Amino acid sequence: MGSIRYDGITTHFNDELLTHMQIVIVQKLMREESFLMSWKAGQSSGDGRTSVWLSPQIPLTFTFMEHVMPDVNKEWLERLGESANASTGLVVTEEDGSLAIAEAPNTTHYPGDM
Prior knowledge:
Distance between the termini: 21 Å
Structural class: alpha+beta
Number of strands: 7
Mean pLDDT: 88
């Protein structure tokens, strides 16, 4: 299970999903586009949903557990890209189109925390 860290929030997704998210997010940020990204929270986080506003000015880190990059599913990538360009923003979905669930609770770290 990998993670995405943005503005002090670390959220965990499986490496395959995270790889597809990374491609879509990087394409948007390279074009200097800000956008909303949303996903379903796991039961341990209250079973709700989380949305963050992604901006090119804020550092973003992707961390993968596996050293080998998973195969990229072009159809899934296109669906995620279309979502990122819609007014709803990037709604993170699994390969089958179902809502993606963060596999670990969101954790917030502030400067000086260890």
